[in-house]
User: Fold this.
Amino acid sequence: MQLDYPSYLEPLNSEQRRAVLHTGKPLLILAGAGSGKTRVITTKIAWLIREQGMDPRSILAVTFTNKAAKEMIQRARQIEERAGDAMLRTFHSFGAWFLRRNGSIAGLDSGFVIYDDDDVVSLLSSIMENTSRPDIRFYANSISRAKDYFLGPDDPGLGIINHHKKFRDIYKRYEERLAQIGNVDFGDLIKKPVEILRSHPEVTQRFRDRFSVIMVDEYQDANVAQFHLLKELCGPSTYVCVVGDDDQSIYRFRGAEVKNILEFPDRFSGADIIRLEQNYRSTSSILKAASSVVDKNKGRLGKTLFAEKGDGSNPELVSLFNQDEEASFCADKIENSVKKKETTWSDWAILYRTNAQSSVFETLFSRRRIPYNVVGSLEFYKREEIKDALALLSFLVNQRDEVAFRRAVNKPARGIGIVTVHKIIETSITSGENLLEISRKLKLSQKARTGLNEFIKLIEDGQALLDGQIIHQTESKKQKLKSGKGLSVCVDMLINNSGLAKHYKMQDEISGNSKIDNLQQLLNNVKDYPNTREGLLEFLENINLDRTLAEEQKDAKEAVTLITLHNTKGLEFKRVIMTGLEQGTFPREDKKGSELEEERRLFYVGATRAMDELYLTTCKQRFMWGRYENRTPSLFLLEVDKSVLKGKLDGGSRQAAFPMGRQFPKSFNPFNLANNELEERSGWRVGQRIFHDNHGYGAVTEIKDSDDGPLVRVRFENGHDKRFLSEFQGRAYEKIGDDY
DNA sequence: TAGTTTTAAGTTTTT
DNA sequence: CTTAAAACTA
Assistant:
């Protein structure tokens, strides 16, 4: 039989197919959860290339997370290989790409570095002296929101964001300072391109010629500035297609405007609307449970979503005593089902509201040897040692970067105090010369001069390395540099010659940290970038736009997923456990009105990730601020339709035998028969099996005396060799079971 | 100025 | 419980 459309459109339903084949006018696709919108977008990209003869390079598709972008390009390529040449980015990464090429029009050097929120606070703190940290954060947040709404410091409407009189002035000074430095913040990645496009018609024309198709996914989470960017990129002949669902809007806290969806038909005249209302993902009982909560929201378009699948088993409400029992429940449930071969590890996801909640699961899962992946935790980046190294790298590409300079110049201590640092920065601002030049010529005390010269030498050596010179004196060092890979050559030199490596190595031995390991991980992460200025810039841009890149790439495919609710957008799992359903955790206690509605939508997003089974857990107590705090069940558990819910809010009366994390009381030492003086004095014993939250299982291999007391050496199953001073025992190292 | 000790404060969510 | 800022000492 002859089909009137290509075979790869066959799996689509009629509405999905209509969306793929739609051409001409602007298109708004209102796509409910699990209605196959990713499939529609990817198929549409393939169809445009294959059937319409479209050049892949003229297609721009925008998503909101890097994870979604990667998945989308992969799925499109499965249908049509050439889809790999289409431009698929997040809004912010598109903005960065745009500014690297066109920023010079607005006076921006192509070598800019992107400031994250902490950097913004740091810069702002030098503008707002004598201001408390929380206040600075508040103003930093206001500036960021203002940019989301495309409001500059001179905009009359600025009062809506922050009505304080001094806000306008602070914003203005911040912008001036940032311009002097030559870097940008997240908001600039959207706002600046719009400004350039508006003031330079020839640039706009170039972009309109380049992109004839623009698609935007998760349009409900676009902010006002992003709407303006889209509008500028769309010429009269551009085909524009946006996909969204107002019920899944979960980023209003950072400026997302659902109005963008509501007003799309007005802003893009003649727009067609296609609704995808058939849900293919979840059982109808899961869908019903999810909808019954979001139904309580007042401000919504309202939609009918039909489940394709049958009823399935009802979502199960599980009441537990505390977060340790919650973790045990999850572990048992998952383990049993995998043992019975009902599921594999990767069929399961554990969802929580805040990143901090992952640690209980991580500890228990590694103890029970359940493989897991934590998605998108920011931890790696927040680490002191990583920030130190990155500050050095940022300063290497931009010697006006006072934020990076401040952090790097006296770490480890080189005898350069705040007075000196302040003097250098002030002189640089007034004279216009960069911080390195000022550092070279400024008259200083002998002590500060010596330290500063070390720092200058370090930066000069780094620059020389990026320029392809090998600068080191000793043969062994030269050898080491030659054998290094890519950018890790330069980074390795920096962290060693700066003294950071030595500094943290000492710290690790005293406290049992693994900061050196993290720096090592950083080296590993940069090894594939070329050892040039361009390579370094590319690396810095990538990690600032996608923090998950810095994490250890241990993506074992067969593993349970631990993930925040926000990060689950666009994903699906056979079985989902939503945890921490308590007032104060989810929803957060202080949420009411429109913010509470956003939490409800978050519940909806989380619940609709589940294909076959959904569990909702709540605890009577939770360990917070060093105490067990009593909790009451989440409002959402009262709101969810009881006719599709298994279980009641009763359990959890059972007292936990031992809180997790400390199976033995502190005083408990099963090996008090130490046979030599050192073992007795240290409280440890060679052969003792131990468990460490970060490193897993291991055994004591050696105890020796040192200036600071007995030093215990541990060999871990993951191959790592660690040492720690015995007086810090019990903090991170836990004795378990028998000797080897 | 550097390093240590004390005290206070604080948990969203992410590009 | 952790982290950050402030106060204190060498």
